[in-house]
Each structure stands twice: as structure tokens, then as C-alpha cells.
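To whoever is covering the structure queue this week,

Two jobs came back overnight. Logging them here so there's a record in the thread.

Job A:
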Amino acid sequence: MPAEQHSPEMKEARRLSDELVSELLAADHVVIATPVYNYNVPAALKAWIDHIVRKGLTLGHDGSGLVTGKKATVLLASGGVYTEGSPIRDRDIATQYLRLILSVIGITDVTVVAGGGAKVVDLGEQTMDGFIAILTPQIERATAA
């Protein structure tokens, strides 16, 4: 549909998408911090993804990623533990999905820091500070320049 036929709502969605794409393109290192809900990303993160995957801006018309030369760090907090050796490893849809989306737009240098077992904080078995302290060395390595 030509831009002159867009409704005010469509124009606002396009404006927001343009702004989010500009932020993404200006960044050298993208950090995505997210909880895992039912094995996947929350709707708010999915909405951001839907705004930044754009033909001609972040995705070439030939399907190649246009966002190159950037790093990404994904920080995941989940109740379950999905790391290597876990009996529920195959349920780790969030990591697979985010790696896929990032690679589709051209970001292949991706580090994932998995904060699995975060439910110990909710259960009062560990403090949030204690839980984060365990992950801090991985986060520092992932975000180092």
C-alpha cells in the first residue's frame, strides 16, 4: 500500500519502526535482556523484532542480512535450565529463535548468557543479588569490548 494511503495508526507504527531500526543500525553492540515465558520470548520483545526486521533496511530483498559488523549479547532469565546436558535442552526455543532472527538480519557474532534456574529467586532460596553474582563473570566477558 502506498504511504499516502496509510491510516494515522499505520503512519505511527511506521514511524516507530523507523526509529527502532535507526537505533539498531547506530549500535555497535546490541544487548537483549529478556525473561523466557513458556520456552520463548515475551510478546513485547517479539513486537520489537517485528519492527526491526524490515526489507530494504535490515533485510535485503534477496534475503541477506544488512546489519553486519555488529555484536549481540543475549541475557536470558528462565525458571528452567536449558544448558548443555539438561534433560529439557530441546525446549530452549528462545535462544534458537533469537539466534535465528539476529542471523537473518546479519548479526552472527552472538553471545548468550543463560540465567537458568531463576525460579530460586521467586522461591526465596536465593537473593536476586546472589543469583546475578553467579552470572556476572559471563556477562562481563560477553559485553567486553
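Job B:
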Amino acid sequence: MEARSIAARHLPKRLADRWFEQHGFTKSVAAMSDREMKAVTQSLHAWQMRPSGTEGFEKAEVTAGGVDTAELSSQTMEARKQPGLYFIGEVVDVTGQLGGFNFQWAWASGFAASQYV
């Protein structure tokens, strides 16, 4: 089985696809040595994403996130299926009226997660 398929069981498929595209791991798990498998897992664990820019406060609007709240602890924002993985802000499927609700949600969920990280 391809490592990308295994990762897609635990991560959103588009995220797994993008990560494997960026890092060039194309072998099946069966074809990987222990050293290569360790390199894949360490690289995935250490991967950091950085926004490339912003359109500013004037363009900020709700985007309706994709992570189901049923998959998260309501107290810590930690993923139930992947301990140590936290989701906050608009990536979580919580929406409200424009006018500050979404900023408040982003700040509040970030604060909640920060108490446990």
C-alpha cells in the first residue's frame, strides 16, 4: 500500500496529497526500509505550514471550516483520533454571523487549545 493512502486515513486526503507532493515520497510502504519509513514519519511530524500572505482585515470573512466538531474535544480542541493534533479557528466547522463572531471563535478556540499544548 502506498504511504500516501495510509496518511490519507488519518489526515484529510488533500492535505496528505499535498504533503507527499512537496516531499517526493512515492514508494509503497512495503518497499521502504526502516530508515526511509522513519524519515517519512519524522518529516511529516515536523512539517510546518506558513501562510504566504494575507488580503488584510478588509477582506476577512468566514470560510466555513472542514474539521467536524464531533471529531474534537470541546475542551482542548484536540483530535479524538490523533492525540497531540489540535484544530482551531476557521478550520473547524463552526460558523456564525459576520461582525466579529469568527474572530472571537478563532481567539477562543486558540486559547482553549493553548491551555493543553
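Note for Job B: Helices lie at 3-10, 13-23, 34-46, 101-114.

Please reply-all if you pick these up so we don't duplicate work.
Q.
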